[in-house]
Design goal:
Layout: H1 14-39, E1 44-48, E2 54-58, H2 63-112, H3 122-185, H4 198-217
Antiparallel strand pairs: 1-2
């Protein structure tokens, strides 16, 4: 049979209490060592027996370092808790002031919009009018400043575009001059190529020889079928 569940209360028998303390102390130290090794945690364990004996366990770092860390953490946490409580008290004191301030701002906003003017006195209305005039002057000043700045930017852009336009115009003129100089330096092309005339010379020689033969025979020269026209063929008798 397994062990039954032990009731958590003080053991009245002194001997049994001492035996249980020894066993549970050893198990507690063993568990502290295991958690420090498995989880790489800094563990500090302090146990005082009923007789006032001290039993302690700490990891590789000394017990003093762990206790100093504990004190710093406890002080910081306590300080944070104190600050939180002080802030809560301050918030509770500031809440009514903030509510009244919000109501005053909302009423002023309605007055600037022209609403809820009935409760205002003449002096309050004059003060409201002066505030509106001052606000309008500031608005107009800021508007004029922005307009001048925009005009200056546009003028700068205009000058930049004008400079770019002049550069492009100069480039176009240079291209035109280059094209004109190239066209004037080229030799003119002939409109009609001359026809070769080797056949004309041959025809004239043949016609002259035929005329001489016909003169010697006393006959008229035959009609030439060469490329030479008739008017170029002259009879020797015409020279007389």
């Amino acid at each position: 049979m397994g062990r039954g569940r032990v009731e958590l209360k003080r053991i009245e028998n002194k001997i049994s209490r001492q035996v249980t303390f020894s066993k549970r102390r050893s198990g507690l130290l063993k568990k502290a060592h295991e958690i420090s090794v498995l989880c790489d945690a800094d563990v500090a364990l302090i146990v005082f027996s009923t007789q006032g004996k001290l039993f302690e366990y700490s990891t590789d770092s000394s017990m003093e370092n762990i206790l100093e860390r504990y004190e710093r953490y406890s002080y910081a946490e306590q300080r944070l808790t104190t600050n939180d409580s002080e802030q809560q008290q301050n918030w509770s004191c500031q809440y009514p002031k903030l509510v009244s301030r919000i109501e005053l701002l909302q009423r002023s906003t309605r007055n600037f919009l022209g609403d809820d003017l009935e409760p205002l006195s003449l002096r309050e209305l004059q003060s409201l009018e002066q505030q509106l005039d001052t606000g309008l002057k500031r608005i107009r000043t800021r508007k004029n400043q922005l307009m001048h700045e925009s005009i200056s930017e546009l003028q700068k852009k205009e000058r930049a575009l004008q400079v770019q336009n002049n550069i492009l115009a100069k480039q176009v003129e240079q291209q035109k001059l280059v094209q004109n100089s190239a066209s004037t330096s080229m030799p003119p092309h002939p409109l009609v190529s001359p026809l070769p005339l080797p056949n004309l010379t041959i025809g004239i020689a043949r016609a002259t020889e035929a005329a001489k033969n016909s003169e010697n025979r006393g006959q008229a020269p035959p009609c030439s079928t060469s490329l030479v026209p008739p008017w170029m063929l002259r009879h020797p008798n015409n020279n007389d």
